Recover the amino acids of this structure.
């Protein structure tokens, strides 16, 4: 063989070998690099997963609620550390279990996640665990791109302490209401005087108003029909005022003759007029020094005395009849009237300036027919009062009380008191029956029933007759009746002529 050819052949072989080794080395390095990259990615993925788990654990610990996570088949994947305290079972013992098995074992009663998997929707329910604790549990499904449930996350909150607290709060609220009612009752009792009974809302409101204004020296005007107890309320104001330790002087301006009223109010000097006491006399205003002066039926006070009373209120001084010396006085003034003082002003029977001096605080006392809740308690009060006074033991039947409640009591509390005293003293039997009542009380009630037995025309006429008679008895003039009923005076005149015997003309106008 040619030496040169051999050398060339060996040289070619050597080059091919070197190239092969080089190619293999390059491929090995490539393969190793790919392997290293895959290992690195897996390691990195594991590191990221561990960090994610640590973050998830930290989040679960930070959340107050117990949290449980399952896969789409109800297999428990993760629970928060507080799970053990709530359900009394170790975390490790539940991981890998299914919620259906936990429900069967009574750990969950019922399982909210099982309901989510059944209904394919979010569920919230009350749950009782194996320790008897009351829980509220909410479970949310987590879906993949196809809409299939891949995870379910439930949140549990222990309501036991909250429910116990709620029950305690309800009990406390009930006690507060009870104690408030008792305090109100005691307060009302503390404000009441003999003869004042407040069961109706309006009467209670009057007592509350009196309680608020009594400590202040502002003038008070009490209004209301005769017999509603204005003098009793005036005494109550005095009793609750800062002047309660001083005199309460009451004078009825309509009960004293006009020529004597001035001397009664202001007093007089000796020899001031014929028949006067030579030593003189102190007046009621002076007697009320540092106390309360109650002027009942103030509308009956003559105009000339109204001027003098206005000066007393403004200047706090008086002069006795026949005297020249100013006498300093200090009293609280309470006035009362059963008439409409504004109407009296329009008719020039009462001074407007005096009215506004009196009308600092006005308390309107409702008639008994508008406070029917007070009728039975008042009746018991008067029955007990007269039984004790006369050494008797009378009781009233239910039908009597029914009549009392349905009757309108035009004379108000005074009429109720008088009727009860009469019944206690004049009835023979221990039990007072309906037949013992005055005829007019039963007749009025019977006429009411009869009113609705007629046809429409007769019913309207009967009602009209009653309204005309009632208005005329109250106002006494065609003008008053017309104004009260919202009709013209000629119409009122004709109706009165029609329904009231003996009516000839409107003499009072």
């Amino acid at each position: 063989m040619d030496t040169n050819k051999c050398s060339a052949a060996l040289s070619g072989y050597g080059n091919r070998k070197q190239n092969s080794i080089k190619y293999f080395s390059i491929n090995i390095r490539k393969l190793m690099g790919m392997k290293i990259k895959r290992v690195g990615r897996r390691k990195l993925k594991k590191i990221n997963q561990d960090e994610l788990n640590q973050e998830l654990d930290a989040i679960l610990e930070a959340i107050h609620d117990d949290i449980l996570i399952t896969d789409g088949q109800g297999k428990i994947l993760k629970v928060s550390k507080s799970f053990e305290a709530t359900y009394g079972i170790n975390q490790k013992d539940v991981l890998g279990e299914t919620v259906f098995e936990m429900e069967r074992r009574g750990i969950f009663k019922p399982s909210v996640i099982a309901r989510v998997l059944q209904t394919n929707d979010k569920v919230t329910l009350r749950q009782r665990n194996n320790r008897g604790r009351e829980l509220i549990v909410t479970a949310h499904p987590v879906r993949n791109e196809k809409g299939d449930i891949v995870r379910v996350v439930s949140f549990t909150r222990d309501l036991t302490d909250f429910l116990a607290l709620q029950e305690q709060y309800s009990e406390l609220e009930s006690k507060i209401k009870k104690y408030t009612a008792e305090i109100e009752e005691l307060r009302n009792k503390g404000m009441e005087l003999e003869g004042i009974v407040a069961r109706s809302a309006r009467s209670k409101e009057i007592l509350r108003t009196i309680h608020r204004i009594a400590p202040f020296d502002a003038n008070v005007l009490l209004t209301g029909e005769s017999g509603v107890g204005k003098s009793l309320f005036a005494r109550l104001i005095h009793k609750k005022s800062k002047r309660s330790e001083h005199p309460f002087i009451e004078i009825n301006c309509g009960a004293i003759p006009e020529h004597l009223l001035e001397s009664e109010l202001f007093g007089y000097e000796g020899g001031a007029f014929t028949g006067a006491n030579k030593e003189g006399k102190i007046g009621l205003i002076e007697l009320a020094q540092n106390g309360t002066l109650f002027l009942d039926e103030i509308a009956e006070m003559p105009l000339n005395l109204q001027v003098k009373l206005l000066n007393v209120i403004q200047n706090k001084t008086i002069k006795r009849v026949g005297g020249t010396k100013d006498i300093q006085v200090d009293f609280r003034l309470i006035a009362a009237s059963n008439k409409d003082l504004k109407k009296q002003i329009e008719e020039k029977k009462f001074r407007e300036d005096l009215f506004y001096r009196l009308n600092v605080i006005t308390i309107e006392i409702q008639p008994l027919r508008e406070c029917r809740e007070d009728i039975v308690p008042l009746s018991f009060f008067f029955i007990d009062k007269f039984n004790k006074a006369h050494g008797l033991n009378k009781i009233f039947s239910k039908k009597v009380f029914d009549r009392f409640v349905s009757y309108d009591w035009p004379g108000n509390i005074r009429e109720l008191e008088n009727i009860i005293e009469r019944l206690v003293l004049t009835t023979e039997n221990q039990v007072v029956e309906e037949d013992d009542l005055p005829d007019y009380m039963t007749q009025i009630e019977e006429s009411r029933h009869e009113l609705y037995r007629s046809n429409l025309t007769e019913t309207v006429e009967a009602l009209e007759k009653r309204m005309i008679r009632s208005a005329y008895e109250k106002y006494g003039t065609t003008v008053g009746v017309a104004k009260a009923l919202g009709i013209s005076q000629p119409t009122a005149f004709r109706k009165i002529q029609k329904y009231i015997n003996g009516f000839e003309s409107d003499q009072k106008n």
Remarks:
- Residues 409 and 416 are 7 Å apart (CA to CA).
- The chain has 20 helices and 16 strands.
- The chain has five domains: 1-62, 64-158, 192-366, 370-438, 454-499.
- The longest helix spans residues 3-62.
